[in-house]
Amino acid sequence: MRPYVRIAFEKQGGDVFVNDSDILECVITSYKSTDGGIINYGEITFDNTNGNFDTENDEELKPGLGVEVWYCFGDNSSTFFRFHLFVDDDGFQSEATGFLDRTCKIKLVDLSSRLDNAKLQRNWTDSETVVDSVVCDKTNPAESLVHIIARRAGIEANQINCGYLPFNIPYVVLNNTVWKELCALARAYDAVVECGRDMTLSFIESPYDTENEYSEETGFDLTEKEITHYRFFSRNDNYANNVRLKYTRYVRTERQELWQYSDAHAWYDEDMQPYYPFTDDNRAIIRDTDYQAIYVAKNEEGKTRNVVWADSLTTEQEFIDDMIVSEGSEKFGIIQFDTTTYKDRAVIQLTRNNNLIALYKAAIYGSAIISETNFSVYVKDDEEIARYGQIAKNITSKYLSDDEIEGTPFYERRANDLLRECVNKKSGWYVTTFLCLVGARVGAFMNIRLNENKAFKKVRIDELTLRYKKDCAFSTELWLSD
Fold first, then answer.
1. How much is the pTM?
2. Taking Cα atoms as reference points, which of 250, 160, 170 lies closest to residue 203?
3. CATH number of 118-204: 3.40.50, 3.30.450, 2.10.260, 3.55.50?
């Protein structure tokens, strides 16, 4: 059956379908961007002879109007709701040539364009620090990064379709647009992120999903009898035989000493124990109102590292109680003991109340998240290097986890998977068909056969365009890779 398109505008009173005869052309494209997310956009041209699409006649015809794109076969009972898009900022663009040739054109974008709008991002909040979260867990959205990021754009948990990726992320700063953050997270875990038609956001189909089985089964076959045109080409732009996975690694430590007073100069008692004499108010911790006690912590190897976040900290009373001074000396008074303004340091000011004090120890304890900068994983394929020479690829991500998957740290598993993907030299095809493949989607697998004497080849859809014209045959255009 010859397919045709139906368009519905989401107006205040409900969905309003456009007259089918008014739709002259509808072209919708879906592709995976370099950021890693799937983007849908399109363009529709209407016959505006009767002025049905003049904005002065209908104030709801404006940028941001929701548009549903349906594909129909035969009668109205065979319909398929495929895209949920929005009119872009150019709105309804009327055009006329002479008196009779009157058309209106709209360009459509999906929700990702709004989620990637930096101007809106500043309204949502410039940056946000998240600690002790997991990648994705719909049963606990308060600690799920996917949900935390989406919430910055007003997307609630019940509007998200997602898998289960319980990998711990100790520390991350969200300082980019919502869409770019979601794409970066999807790239790290090889997931599909898309603003869909039924759910506002999808974050699914990661091979590392521990609950939902990942499948590469093909959805349908396309043979030479249905293909109207194809072009073959090589795709070696992503080839590499040496993958260097770099990132700043954040690690949560056990509770330990994060700071101890050690400002010069120290004296030594008869037992050669160092202490700090306070005979006047010239020491900075007494003199300054913004004395900063910067935290440091030790990793498992005993090496000192910078602290980016600390909690479970010593209280003001504990700080006084644990303070060690010479026998018979009064302890310091506290003017300021602030451990909440900053997460990597405390602001302290003491007073000696005109007493002579010999301080042996004043310390702050807590649990910390430390940074291991320039942490790297190197994996290579020696056979490929011997054949083609060393071709390296540097990949960075702030979302990698130390948690194990099948007995291997995730960052190591991910590096090996990326190497395997990079050493496979790929082929590409551009294919057109008269079939209306509305069930196809980017990231899915299918089989193609270009010659009846050859076997089917399994390929992945990288981009697709559904092209409808009122007076022409329908065309589906596919960009494929093996």
1. 0.90
2. 160
3. 3.55.50
